[in-house]
From TrEMBL:
Lineage, highest ranks first: Eukaryota, Viridiplantae, Streptophyta, Embryophyta, Tracheophyta
Enzyme Commission number, as recorded: 3.2.1.39
The UniProt record lists the keyword Disulfide bond: yes
Protein name, as recorded: glucan endo-1,3-beta-D-glucosidase
Subcellular location field: Secreted
GO terms assigned for molecular function: glucan endo-1,3-beta-D-glucosidase activity
Origin: domain of life: Eukaryota
UniProt signal peptide: 1-28
Organism (species): Linum tenue
C-alpha cells in the first residue's frame, strides 16, 4: 500500500488524467511548446507558420529574438510567446535602465496583449560562455527589463528569466545528488533570488541525445528514448528512473532544493533529437528522433510528471520547429526540425490535431503488425523485457500465469513475445515502442498462431 501522503497525489493525478481525456487540445496541453529558430534562409512566411502551429497541439512558441513579423503573425492565435534578448544586448540592458525601457517599448508594448507574450528570456546559456564580465551583467539586465515591464503595468503578466545549459550542474548523476557547479553557485543564487521575487521559472536545456552520445549502449538508448528498459535506481533516494529526461529534470530539481529554492518552477527551454548527423554522431536517425519526441509528448500528456514532481508536466519547448540550414557545426545541428520549409512533417510524432487521437505509425487496414523478439535475443534480454512490461501499471500478464490462456507454450521466448506485443498494442502501435533495446522487431505474422 502506498504511503498515505501519496494518496492525495494519486487522486489529483486521476483528476488531471480525466480532464486530459475530455479536453485534449485545450489548456491542458499548455505545457507543449516549440522553439522557432531563424538561422536559415528557406523558412516559410510567418503567417504560414502561424497557421501551421494552430493545426497542432503546440500552445507556446519560443523565439531567440523578437522578430516583429513573427510576433504579429501569432496575434489572436492564443499561442503563448517567449521572446529573447540576445547575449549581445545584455551590456546595454544592464548599464542603462532607459535601454531596457526602449527594448520593452519596441518588442513588447506594440504587440501585447493581442500577441500573448508570456516570458522574456535575457541571454542564452550565458554562464556557459565563461565571460565573467557578461555573467556579472546578466542579473542587472534582467532586473532592468523587469522594471521596464513593471513601469508598463506588465509586471506579473510578462515574466523575465534566462536560459541555462545543463552544464550549470556540477553533479547530475544520480538525480538526488544534483547540485550546481561551484563556479556558478553565487551567480545562480543571485539569479534565483530575483526569479523567486518575480515568480519566473528557471529555464534549462536537457538533451538526452548528448547523454547517449557519451554512452552509446543499447540499454542507454532505450533509457533515453522512453522505451522499455530495466530502469536506473538512484542510489541516494532509492527511486527507479525509467527515462533520461526525468532523471535530468529531477537533477535540476535536486540542485534547486539543495540551496533552498524548492518554490522555483522548472521550464525545459530546449530538448530534442536530430534525425540525421555525421557518421560519427551515433544515434542521429529518423527512427530515434521520432521515438524521442513522440514518447516525450506522450509522457507529457500522461501528466505523470517526474518522480520528484509528480502529477504535473513541466513546460517543455521542443527543439525545433524547422531545420536551420545556416547553423555551423556538425550535421545534427541542422537536422532537428519537426517540420520542413514546405510545412510538411519531417516525421509524425502526433502533434497535429488530426493525429493526436489517431495512432501514428499504425499500418493501413489489412496490414496488421505484431511486435516479436528478434532471433538471437538472449534469455537475459527477454526476461528483462518481460519483467518491464509486466511491471507496468495497467498491463495484465495474468494470461502468462500457470493455467492462463497464453501460458503454453511455457517458454521464455513465447512469454516475452506475448508481453512485447501487448506493450506495443497498448502503446497505440507506435513502431518506436517495439524496440526493447534493439531485441524486438515488427512482424506481419501473428505470434499467437
Amino acid at each position: 500500500m502506498p504511503p498515505t501522503f501519496l494518496l492525495p497525489l494519486a487522486a489529483a493525478f486521476l483528476l488531471l488524467l480525466l480532464l486530459h481525456l475530455h479536453f485534449p487540445f485545450a489548456s491542458s496541453q499548455s505545457y507543449i511548446g516549440v522553439n522557432y529558430g531563424q538561422v536559415a534562409d528557406n523558412l516559410p512566411p510567418p503567417a504560414a507558420t502561424a497557421k501551421l502551429l494552430q493545426s497542432t497541439a503546440v500552445q507556446k512558441v519560443r523565439l531567440y529574438g523578437a522578430d516583429p513579423a513573427i510576433i504579429r503573425a501569432l496575434a489572436n492565435t492564443g499561442i503563448g510567446i517567449v521572446i529573447g534578448a540576445a547575449n549581445g544586448d545584455i551590456p546595454a540592458l544592464a548599464s542603462d535602465p532607459n535601454s531596457a525601457g526602449q527594448w520593452v517599448n519596441s518588442n513588447v508594448l506594440p504587440f501585447y496583449p493581442a500577441s500573448s507574450i508570456v516570458l522574456v528570456t535575457v541571454g542564452n546559456e550565458v554562464l556557459l560562455s565563461g565571460d565573467q564580465n557578461l555573467i556579472s551583467q546578466l542579473l542587472p539586465a534582467m532586473q532592468n527589463v523587469q522594471n521596464a515591464l513593471n513601469s508598463a503595468s506588465l509586471g506579473g503578466k510578462v515574466k523575465v528569466s534566462t536560459v541555462h545549459s545543463m552544464s550549470i550542474l556540477g553533479r547530475s548523476d544520480p538525480p538526488s545528488s544534483g547540485s550546481f557547479d561551484s563556479s556558478h553557485l553565487d551567480a545562480m543564487k543571485a539569479l534565483l533570488q530575483f526569479q523567486r521575487g518575480v515568480g519566473s521559472p528557471i529555464a534549462v536545456n536537457p538533451y538526452p541525445f548528448f547523454a547517449y552520445q557519451s554512452d552509446p549502449r543499447p540499454e542507454t538508448l532505450a533509457f533515453c528514448l522512453f522505451q522499455p528498459n530495466a530502469g536506473r535506481v538512484d542510489s541516494g533516494s532509492g527511486i527507479k528512473y525509467m527515462n533520461m529526461f526525468d532523471a535530468q529534470v529531477d537533477a535540476v530539481r535536486s540542485a534547486l532544493n539543495g540551496i533552498g529554492f524548492k518554490d522555483i518552477d522548472i521550464m525545459v527551454a530546449e530538448t530534442g533529437w536530430p534525425y540525421k548527423g555525421d557518421p560519427n554522431e551515433v544515434g542521429a536517425s529518423v527512427e530515434n528522433a521520432r521515438a524521442y519526441n513522440g514518447n516525450l509528448i506522450a509522457h507529457l500528456r500522461s501528466m505523470a510528471g517526474t518522480p520528484l514532481m509528480p502529477g504535473k508536466s513541466v513546460d517543455t519547448y521542443l527543439f525545433a520547429l524547422y531545420d536551420e540550414d545556416l547553423k555551423p557545426g556538425p550535421s545534427s545541428e541542422r537536422s532537428f526540425g519537426l517540420f520542413k520549409p514546405d510545412l510538411s512533417m519531417t516525421y509524425d510524432v502526433g502533434l497535429s490535431k488530426t493525429s493526436t487521437t489517431s495512432q501514428p505509425g499504425s499500418p493501413a487496414a489489412g496490414q496488421e503488425r505484431w511486435c516479436v523478439p528478434k532471433a538471437g535475443a538472449s534469455d537475459a534480454q527477454l526476461q528483462a523485457s518481460l519483467d518491464y512490461v509486466c511491471g507496468q501499471q495497467g498491463i495484465d500478464c495474468g494470461p502468462l500465469q500457470p493455467g492462463g490462456a497464453c501460458f503454453e507454450p511455457n517458454t521464455l521466448a513465447s512469454h516475452a513475445a506475448y508481453a512485447m506485443n501487448l506493450y506495443f498494442q497498448r502503446s497505440d502501435k507506435r513502431p518506436w515502442n517495439c524496440d526493447f533495446s534493439q531485441t524486438a522487431a515488427l512482424s506481419s505474422n501473428n505470434p499467437s498462431k
